Amino acid sequence: MREPDNVNEMSIREINAYFRKHDESHLWPVCGKFNVTERAIRKVRRMRQQGLCLNPGLEYYYTLESVVSRIVNSIV
Fold first, then answer.
1. For 1-76, where are the alpha helices, taking DSSP H only?
2. Bridge partners, residue 30, by sequence
3. DSSP code per residue over 40-53
């Protein structure tokens, strides 16, 4: 997925929508059981509720991208 040009001005809600719009997990279902993007968004949301401090924009974008990668790479 290509990083949007205006990612620094995007809110967390807009970044989540961007990830959902560009989601390709239906093309390669991980064990056919779940949507990777939704799982990553929920995981980051829980991390923030537990005290992780993330700024909207680039910091949130890269964190979400990292969590997506970890989920995909941990499923064998």
1. 12-21, 36-49, 58-74
2. 34
3. HHHHHHHHHHTT--
Residues in CB range of 68: below 8 A, 6 or more apart: 19, 36, 37, 40
Query: CA–CA separation, 26 vs 47, rounded Å?
Result: 25
In degrees rounded to 5, what are phi and psi of residue 49? -65, -25
Q: Can you give the residue ranges of every domain in the chain?
A: 7-74
> Structure pTM?
0.84
Residue pLDDT, tens place only, 20-36: 999 887 766 656 667 88
62 is written with which tokens? 């890269």
pLDDT tens across 38-51, in order?
Answer: 999 999 999 999 99
Instruction: Confirm if 66 and 22 have CB atoms less than 8 A apart.
Output: no
- How many other C-beta atoms lie within 10 A of the C-beta of residue 27? 6
